Amino acid sequence: MAFFPASLENLIDKFASLPGIGRKSAQRLAFHVLSLPEPEALAFAGAITQARRSVRCCKVCQNLTEEEICPICASDRRDQGTICVVSEPRDVLSIERSREYNGTYHVLHGVLSPMNHVGPDDLKIKELLVRAAQEGVEEIIMATNPDTEGEATAMYISRLLKPFGVKVSRLAYGIPVGSNLEFADDATLTRALEGRTEM
Asked: What does each C-alpha distance from 149 to 103, 155, 160, 182 come to in angstroms?
């Protein structure tokens, strides 16, 4: 027996299909949207439609943009010889927040995951290889997550990049700033020891 009208159930189902949103959160969101004044609800729906129509992948780095080339790739202040490879567009924001990196990016839009049927052809790897072949590219930094799939993706791409003679590096891993050694797991401590630097 349905507790809600079909259109409300459909709205709840749409919210529930979003990553990280469970059924109860989807219900709260759906009820909130229904409680909005009609102009606000239409503006919300319009924002989704507008973003879907306007946002596309940058033809250089594959990051999300409304232009043909994103502002980072178009900037003459960025180091065009360094490319930081990330899994998802949100990872670009994480690195940009540090204000320590001044190169460009390449967004793969996922990681290799045989269990989820994601192979090399499903990612933006070919586009990266085209960029690596260009003059002036000196270093490619692999910044995928330090999990099994992220590591496998980084290793796979680094092997493909070998023939280009480009320096391929990996983000260092270790103990987070402000944490205690006693709470670090074995894998983290091992990585921290391997990636130690001279003082």
From this structure: 25, 10, 17, 27
pLDDT band at 59 (very low <50, low <70, confident <90, very high): very high
Same fold for the domain at 6-54 and the one at 67-170? no
The helix/strand/coil state of 62 is: coil
- Global pTM value: 0.82
Cα distance from N-terminal residue to C-terminal residue, the chain: 68
Share of the chain above pLDDT 70, in %: 96
What CATH code is assigned to 67-170?
3.40.1360.10
In this structure, the number of other CB atoms found within 10 A of the CB of residue 149 comes to 18
Domain spans of the chain, in order of start:
6-54, 67-170
Phi and psi torsions of 9, nearest 5°: -60, -40
Q: What is the pLDDT of residue 198?
A: 65
Superfamily name with CATH number, domain 6-54: RecR Domain 1 (1.10.8.420)
- Map residue 85 onto helix, strand or coil: strand
Taking a C-beta distance cutoff of 8 angstroms, is the pair 107, 88 a contact?
A: yes
